[in-house]
Specification:
The protein has 52 helices and 24 strands. The longest helix is centred in the middle third of the chain and has 53 residues, at 645-697. The protein is an alpha+beta fold.
Length: 1277
């Protein structure tokens, strides 16, 4: 790659915050060290001793004494803080810096942001980017504890003091637990037991402090496995043995002593338990390493991730080129500026690999690098180059590159093991140009064959004796190899001709024919002692030389990838197994499919591969009619122009060798093509799953008032379970904070007036803002309709309140919405361990309602809380075609995107286990780092005052802080506090805080001196902007300031706009509004059917529920009410008695005439014409040239002929469950039966087989093959 090409994607590193870097470096080596104020410990210790004396002496401390003690404690704390403040002020620090030779901050380089109405501005220049992140920004952290303690209650204060106690103070926990009894005879035993308890507790505390593990996990492990005290007697025995000194056996050999006490978790707990709780050594390494947890997991197994500069530039180029080619295949390159695109991709690779920034951090804080800005006719233009899906794809390519890199390094090592004088031009060319694993494998095969004998020296003895190239080495050493040398052209020159697509090297015929040369070289008693053997050996070695030539392989692969045709070859098994309702029916007779046609239907090829794995089809990849012309074209590059018999003989030999080579290469290349189409299809399906899941998760909490988007509502969740006649209606009233205000069970039928009274009373009492309904089947629709009537008749409305809790006058009443809610999360929650732990006293349907209410309040948290069960959610109808780990990665990537979009109120999450589930999806973190962060904050008082405390208090390391900081929201207090950073309540990254302050100062029209003076006040310049009006920001000209920043290498155009938006509306709800289900989605929710599976013209099975001579009414297994009018049953002019012909409970097949998806009703027909035109399964689009109609007709005729034979032979079996039915008829017969019913029927496998068809559940049947033996003939002709 040229210097210019490398420069085009050269990394542009944004300026970093020195304060953060310095603080992070101190935290790298000692991440979780805790600093305890010794004076406070003394105070606490004195107070504890005083309290214990009071208790022992029988005193009860009154309120006045308690208040007096609190005042003394508060006075001591204030006095101590004053002493700390008096140690070094800012002037002293400045003097120290001057004495140390540090230079003062340089002058600012940027002008003030101009107001829209101003044309010139001669004011003093404000602070520049070089001064943006000074050490002053971190001041105030020392006072954090004071502010936190003032607001904390007594319980929190006591808890925090206890956490700050050194380990030796925990011994007092058992002091005086057992009073001394001077009359006891067991004093010594008690003392020993008490000492063991103290020792065990101290060891637990010491281990918890040094292991950096979550205390909850350790407590859980100790609860399961104990702390080892039950084995204390054995340890005491060992200790006694140790006191006896060395022991020797009868031979005088020293007897080894017992092992020491275990020092690691692996010596105490089973590895699988540690792995399940993320407590292995590897998990601990992930916790403390300053790399995002997800990155560490993805990079696991990569031998060398950190590359040198040239290797890293190669990676940037490879990722950029590969991604551009992928865009090219989707015809998206027309919208892109190629140079800008390649440069942007290279920069993103730098952010990921070198800066360890996760996708949300890049998207939120480095968004300018995903855009291309330029000026056209004096106007600023912005072109979007990359989206979030693209960033995740670049991350995948970053990992994929290392497989290529490691393969390339292995080949280099292989080549370097050859003799020093070895010089191979093919190697030198391909090692630089190879861009894929396939190309590198070609080079590997070439070297292995060409230098097989030289490479033997690097192999062990067993490999030497079993080398697959041994026969070729014998041929090379024999005289018959002269025939190959006189072939007129070698494999390398032929490859050059093919690569150039022209005959660069001409072929010369030897004066003798190949047969004559072979006769001369054949020797008796040699390995090739006959002409046939010798000729076979010549063809074999020359064809092998051709087949391993990388240039020939590359050309064939390129041709197949561009022109290959895919056909489906149906097997005999597939002819019977792939029916019209099969998931493989749409490609049963597929032919002439181009490889590019799968780009827009990625599931199609994956289903083909699945059918092939089941033995139903064979996927054929070929050039079809173009293959022979292609071979002829290749042969022109190796044939001679001679016309003599000798020339003809040589050309025939060359043609035979080329044919042998292609016979070996074509299947291999076909597999490569299939693999490439598979990986492309999986990639496309991966991002389809991402997009589908984003639609599920990207929802704000529901609220009936649009202006209150993002506000959590009060929810009344209602369900009648399975909706049977004896099923009660249950309601759960969930308040804003997720607490259950009421749980009510209605014993009355919901159609009764008493139900209406109770429900109305509940609604008036609780005042819900939404009534959410969900259930298991169509029966819920009747309850939904009834509750809508109750709400309307009783005028149940939403109370609209302003910010102060009052209802504004003149506000129109809003009727409480009654809506269906998806049940997929609630169905998993109701039977989960989590539900059992939280609500063990509530019935299953009540837990279901709780899941519904939680979903309405936060769809994101409900999906997150599912854990590993999330993969069982239906996201994409073909998601099962992807490996589960890829589905999980697609889901987790969406969780990361949306969690960072929404942000996490970190202090609320620390106090709530339900809310804390989102922390692991914040950029930089993961389940391990999240648990460590939670534990760290809890041990530091249980509250995070400022974002920069994450680094200053050693809660995170530098890179993790750079990723997670902007996504932790710390809401601003009602009153400004000097210790609180107001910008922590925004999405602005701490590295951009100075930019935000500068914008605020310029919006207020402040000089630099005025800004510095105001910054010393509570709230600073940002607080003053909030007080005087954030609308002043609209007067700033950000475009000019962005130009100034870009001149100094800082791309902040998009960042400036984001800062403005956050200052005006911090953490605004950016998610889409809560999705209200459409009628089609409700139909699918309650019936599990869709417009694709239940549509007009389809043949369906219905179970008769009621018969009248005028009509028949029935239900499908999915609960759809079906009506058959007499005119759609009896042909015109005929007179049937419907009650005599049909019976209740009978399953019949009918054609769908019409369907109302809103009311779950369908009109069916039994007329012959309608049945003959009806279809089962989904409609299959069949196009001429892409569907093998001839093969389909042949198979249909064979099936009809077979059916005629079967109908002439009926089995006679005296068994009450035997029926002469086929599989379809058996399933229809059992459709109306209860689960567990079965029939015995003839088998299609022959007269010695029977089949048991067993109904497992609705739409779910199992066909069991039974083999008969020693039976008499039971066939009736």
């Amino acid at each position: 790659m040229s210097h210019e090409e490398r420069t085009s994607i050269k990394s542009e590193r944004p300026e970093r915050n020195p304060m953060l870097d310095d603080a992070a470096e101190q935290s790298d080596d000692d991440e979780l060290d805790k600093l305890v104020d010794s004076s406070e410990e003394d105070d606490d210790e004195d107070e504890d001793e005083e309290a214990m004396r009071a208790v022992r002496e029988g005193f009860i401390v009154d309120d006045e004494e308690e208040e007096s003690r609190k005042r003394r404690k508060k006075h001591k704390r204030k006095h101590r803080l004053q002493e700390e403040d008096e140690e070094l002020d800012e002037d002293d620090l400045a003097l120290l810096r001057e004495n140390l030779g540090e230079k003062s901050a340089p002058a600012t380089q940027f002008k003030r942001l101009k107001r829209a109405a101003e044309e010139t501005d001669n004011r003093q220049q404000s602070k520049g980017l070089d001064d943006m992140f000074s050490d002053e920004e971190g001041q105030g952290g020392d006072d954090m504890e004071d502010g936190a303690e003032e607001d904390a209650d007594d319980l929190l204060e006591a808890s925090r003091k206890r956490q700050q106690m050194p380990s030796h103070e925990f011994r007092d926990e058992f002091d005086d637990f057992i009073d001394d009894d001077e009359f006891s005879d067991d004093d010594e035993d008690k003392e020993e037991k008490l000492a063991r308890m103290r020792s065990a507790r101290a060891k637990q505390i010491q281990f918890a402090q040094t292991s950096q593990l979550d205390q909850d996990k350790l407590d859980e492990l100790y609860e399961i496995f104990g702390d080892g005290e039950e084995y204390a007697w054995a340890l005491e025995a060992e200790a006694a043995d140790d006191d006896e000194g060395d022991q020797f056996d009868e031979y005088g050999q020293l007897i080894p002593k017992s092992k020491k006490d275990p020092q690691a978790l692996t010596e105490v707990f089973e590895y699988e338990e540690l792995k399940e709780h993320l407590l292995t050594d590897k998990d601990q390494e992930i916790r403390i390493t300053d790399v995002p947890e997800r990155f560490q997991t993805l990079r696991e197994g990569i031998k060398k991730y950190d590359l040198d500069d040239q290797e890293f530039a190669d990676k940037q180029q490879w990722v950029a080129d590969t991604f551009y080619n992928e865009k090219l295949a989707l015809f998206q390159e027309k919208e892109l500026n190629k140079d800008a695109f390649l440069k942007a991709v290279g920069q993103i690779v730098h952010f990921i690999s070198r800066d360890n920034l996760e996708v949300p951090t890049i998207w939120n804080c480095r968004k300018d690098y995903t855009l291309h800005t330029y000026r056209e006719n004096g106007q600023l233009r912005v072109q979007k180059l990359l989206n979030e899906n693209d960033l995740w794809r670049i991350l995948q390519l970053d990992i994929d590159y290392h497989a290529i890199y490691e393969k390339k390094q292995a080949i280099k090592k292989m080549y370097e093991s050859l003799p020093d004088e070895t010089l191979d031009l093919i190697y030198e060319d391909f090692i630089k140009s190879a861009k894929s694993i396939s190309e590198l494998q070609d080079l590997h095969d070439y070297l292995s064959f060409t230098y097989s004998e030289e490479l033997k020296d690097t192999m062990n003895t067993k490999q030497k004796s079993h080398s697959k190239y041994s026969i070729f080495e014998k041929i090379k050493k024999s005289e018959i190899y002269n025939v190959v040398k006189n072939m007129g052209i070698d494999a390398e020159k032929f490859g050059d001709n093919v690569a150039a697509n022209t005959q660069i090297f001409l072929t010369d015929d030897y004066i003798k024919s190949p047969q004559e040369l072979i006769k001369e070289t054949v020797r008796p008693r040699s390995y090739f002692d006959t002409e046939e053997k010798a000729m076979h050996a010549v063809k074999r070695i020359f064809s092998e030389q051709l087949s391993v030539n990388p240039k020939l392989r590359a050309q064939i692969r390129k041709t197949f990838e561009k022109y290959a045709i895919i056909d489906i070859d149906l097997t005999e098994k597939g002819k019977t197994k792939i029916t019209n309702s099969s998931p493989y029916a749409d490609f049963k007779y597929a032919i002439n499919r181009n490889t590019n046609s799968f780009m827009y239907q990625p599931d199609l090829f994956l289903r083909m591969l699945e059918a092939e794995s089941l033995g139903y089809v064979n996927i054929k990849v070929s050039l079809k009619s173009a293959f022979d012309p292609f071979v002829s074209h290749l042969f022109t590059f190796m044939s001679s122009d001679g016309t003599s018999d000798v020339s003809t003989a040589w050309n025939d030999l060359r043609k035979q060798c080329l044919t042998l080579a292609l016979n070996k290469l074509v299947p291999m290349v076909a597999l490569d093509v299939k693999e490439k189409v598979r990986t492309t299809s999986e990639r496309m399906l991966f991002f389809e799953i991402r997009d589908n899941f984003m639609n599920k998760v990207d929802q704000a909490p529901f609220h009936p008032i649009p202006s209150q988007k993002g506000t959590v509502p009060r929810v009344l969740a209602v369900s009648n379970g399975d909706g049977k006649k004896d099923s009660a209606v249950l309601a759960i009233a969930m308040d804003y904070d997720g607490a259950i205000a009421e749980h009510l069970k209605f014993d009355e039928n919901f159609k009764d007036s008493e139900f209406e009274k109770k429900f109305t009373a509940l609604a008036n009492r609780f005042k819900p803002e939404v009534i959410a309904l969900s259930g298991y089947n169509v029966n819920l629709s009747h309850l939904h309709k009834r509750i809508q009537e109750i709400v309307k008749n009783n005028r149940i409305t939403v109370e609209v309140e302003d910010d102060e809790g009052y209802q504004p006058e003149g506000t129109p009443a809003v009727e409480v919405p009654v809506m269906y809610v998806p049940n997929e999360t609630a169905r998993l929650f109701e039977h989960s361990t989590r539900a059992e732990q939280e609500f063990s006293d509530k019935p299953v349907v009540a837990k279901f309602c709780i899941g519904i209410a939680r979903y309405v309040q936060s769809p994101l948290l409900e999906y997150m809380s599912l854990g590993d069960a999330i993969t069982s959610i239906s996201i994409h109808k073909h998601q099962n075609l992807l490996p589960e780990e890829k589905i999980k990665f697609a889901i987790d990537s969406i969780f990361v995107d949306v969690a960072c979009l929404v942000g996490v109120k970190i202090n609320d999450a620390i106090r709530s286990q339900y809310l804390s589930v989102a922390i692991q999806y914040i950029a930089g973190l993961g389940p391990r780092k999240a648990s460590s962060l939670i534990r760290g904050i809890e041990s530091n008082g249980g509250i995070l005052i400022r974002r920069d405390d994450l680094v200053l208090n050693g809660l995170t390391t530098k890179n993790i802080f750079m990723n997670c900081a902007p996504f932790f929201e710390i809401p601003s207090p009602d009153r400004y506090d000097k210790d609180v950073e107001l910008l922590d309540a925004t999405r602005i990254h701490p590295e951009d805080y100075e930019l935000a302050r500068k914008m605020a100062a310029d919006a207020l029209d402040l000089t630099e001196e005025e800004k510095q003076e105001i910054d010393q006040e509570e709230g600073g310049v940002v607080g003053k902007l909030f007080d005087e009006g954030i609308d002043k920001l609209d007067e700033l000209l950000l475009e000019g300031y962005a130009d100034q920043l870009e001149e100094h290498g800082h791309r902040k155009r998009s960042t400036l706009e984001m800062i403005k938006e956050e200052l005006q509306n911090s953490y605004e709800e950016l998610r889409k509004s809560f999705h209200i289900l459409t009628s089609d989605e409700v139909f699918h929710l309650l019936t599990n059917e869709s417009k694709e599976t239940f549509q007009r013209g389809m043949l369906v099975t219905t179970i008769i529920q009621r018969i009248d001579n005028r009509f028949i009414m029935g239900n499908t297994q999915s609960g759809i009410l079906c009506n058959l009018q007499r005119s759609n049953i009896v042909p015109y002019g005929e007179d049937w008695n419907l009650m005599a012909k049909y019976q209740t409970g009978q399953a019949i097949q009918a054609a769908v005439k019409s369907i109302d998806y809103d009311t779950f009703r369908a009109e069916l027909s039994l007329l012959k014409d309608d049945l003959s035109n009806a279809f089962t399964g989904k409609k299959i689009e069949k196009f001429k040239g892409l569907w093998d109609f001839e093969a389909e007709q042949r198979d249909i005729q064979k099936e009809l002929q077979a059916d005629k034979v079967d109908t002439n032979k009926k089995r006679i079996l005296k068994h009450p469950y035997f029926r002469n039915m086929n599989a379809k008829q058996a399933e229809d017969y059992l459709a109306s039966k209860t689960n567990g019913e079965f029939v015995i029927r003839p088998s299609s496998k022959g007269v010695n087989h029977l089949t048991i068809t067993w109904k497992i559940d609705n739409h779910l049947f199992q066909h069991i093959d039974v083999i008969e033996s020693d039976k008499t003939n039971d066939i009736q002709s």
